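Our preliminary data section would be incomplete without showing what the modeling component actually yields. Below, a chain of 158 amino acids is followed by its predicted structure, encoded as tokens that our downstream tools consume directly.
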Amino acid sequence: MPSEKPSPQQLTLRFKCHKTTICLLVAPHDSLSSVKEKLLEAIKATQVNEINGQSLPSDPDNVIFGVPADTDESNGQWIELEIPEPEDDTRKKGSKTPDVLNATPMGAGLKDGSVLAFRFRDEATDADDLAEDKLKWDVIMPNFDDEEGSQMKDIEEI
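Predicted structure:
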């Protein structure tokens, strides 16, 4: 996988699933579909075929992104990333399709360093199962409290 040189116009996005974190460099105006493709390519480049029992999908459309429900991303609350609809004034008259720019990291309100959860839609899962499972995200955030405490014990013993 060729590495890209960072530029001020690009964003670094962190994608999390279970204990896995993947950092990707994306352009703010890349489509979210191309970001999903890049994510799958990055995972496959490491010879990983599944994450915590979830097989990698062959179709990038089966990748679902989630964003933190509030600014404290460590609480484990995630909601599915939805593409915002443009105001009626900004859309061309008679057009029912969403604005193409809204389906980008910039249009979704993502900034450099944003964290997104990801999961895979099972191709056999129907819409009812997906709606029921909508609130479940398999993301384990690191907890540094234990580490900090154990280091303090080592310092006190010296």
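Residues 37 and 139 are 20 Å apart (CA to CA). Helices lie at 32-45, 127-132, 145-157. Preliminary results of this kind motivate Aim 1 of the renewal.
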